[in-house]
Amino acid sequence: MKIVNYKWKDAEIRTGAVIGDYIVDLNRAYERYLEYSNDPLSYEIAQVEVSSNIHSFINGGMKAVQKAQEALDFLQSKQALKPNQWLIFDRNDVCLKAPLNKPGKIICVGHNYREHILEMGREIPSTPVIFAKFANTIIGPEDDIPKFDALSDQYDYEAEFAFVVGKKARFVSKKDALEHVFGYTIANDVSVRDLQKRTVEWLQGKTVEGTLPLGPWIVTSDELNNPSGLTVELKVNGKTRQRSNTANLVFDVPFLVEFLSNLMTLEPGDLILTGTPGGVGTARNPQVFLQDGDVVTVFIDQIGVLENKVQSVEANVEV
Q1: How far is CA 173 from CA 30, 184, 254, 258, 300, in A?
Q2: How far is Cα 266 from Cα 164, in angstroms, rounded to an integer?
Q3: Where are the domains positioned within the chain?
Q4: Contact at 8 Å (CB) between 317 and 148?
Q5: How far apart are CA 243 and CA 78, in angstroms?
Q6: Residue 295 and residue 276 in contact, taking contact as beta carbons nearer than 8 Å
Q7: pLDDT for the residue numbered 255
Q8: Helix (H/G/I), strand (E/B), else coil: 180
Q9: CATH assignment of 2-96?
């Protein structure tokens, strides 16, 4: 299932699923499914079991996904899907927001593709390099990447394969790790290089407002059950800058779940970025950084495409 956060006109952000050219509201689909069986508490049950809030939905785990799938199968068996501005929407009529808006933790892995490690002049790490981003960085698949020219002119791209924790994880083994993954999405860890290099700690260059395009959806782990062997490609204005495969990760998803869950408790809705391939702008000769109007496109096999435009903004403009 491809799960999205969508917004129709001035309504609240709600959780839906992509079915062809349509977005189906999962909470309302499950409510309709229960109504068909004459359940007098269909509304109340739907609010609990298939929430309209993405973080509550993820807390429901694969049981919530299964119930939502039952509702989608029911709808498709009873009628042809048609937009009705309540339950089913044409994709062109809604705005897709980031599939996660306020994860409890955003954990990033640095130097996790061999070719990127080599281009940065470093050695293969014996343990993962871990840093953080914050929720203020997240923007959606239809948002522009704000480039604060007064702050820096060294905005760089980083294509990332990301996964979402679906079940509380503490001291989890690699063998059981994928049971704790809710699904997978695409991220672009936009990095402001001169700020990143001010100190030995990278945080300044990784937490600038609007520097984490995310989406367009989360593909649930029952649909994408093997996170290895996926092509990752990033283009700027149609020209390939990065291309690799998740098989080339130094530390793969099962390893990262085990490693991180031994450091901390991973909670449902936590977002993990697994690292970027070689080809980043700062490692090129000459260096190439993102400019106003650039279009950055990230493709990951079995997930889809995340595309955002870079827009220069004044420092005092609210984004």
Answers
A1: 34, 20, 8, 5, 26
A2: 10
A3: 2-96, 98-313
A4: no
A5: 43
A6: no
A7: 98
A8: helix
A9: 2.30.30.230
Determine the pLDDT at residue 315: 66
Q: 187: closest CA among 310, 88, 68, 272?
A: 272
At 31-75, the pLDDT tens digits run: 999 988 777 788 889 999 999 999 999 999 999 999 999 999 998
Task: Label residues 53-87 b or e (16+ Cβ within 10 Å = b).
Answer: bbbbbbbbbbebbebbbebbebbeeeeeeebeeeb
- Residue ranges, the chain, pLDDT below 50: 317, 319
Specify whether the CB–CB gap between 301 and 161 falls below 8 A: no
Q: What are phi and psi of 119, to 5 degrees?
A: -70, -25
Interval 134-177: pLDDT, tens: 999 999 999 999 999 999 999 999 999 999 999 999 999 999 99
Q: Domain 98-313 has what CATH class? A: alpha beta
Q: Which residues, listed in sequence order, are joined to residue 246 by a DSSP beta bridge? A: none
CA gap 36, 105 in Å, rounded: 39
Q: According to the model, what pLDDT value does residue 221 have?
A: 97
Q: Does pTM top 0.90 for this prediction?
A: yes
Q: Is 147 in a helix, a strand, or coil?
A: strand
φ, ψ at 116 (rounded to 5°)? -70, -40
| 112 neighbors 159 (Cβ within 8 angstroms) | no
Pairing of strands 14-19, 138-139: unpaired
pLDDT for the residue 319: 43
Question: In the numeric block, which tokens belong to residue 15?
Answer: 């959780």
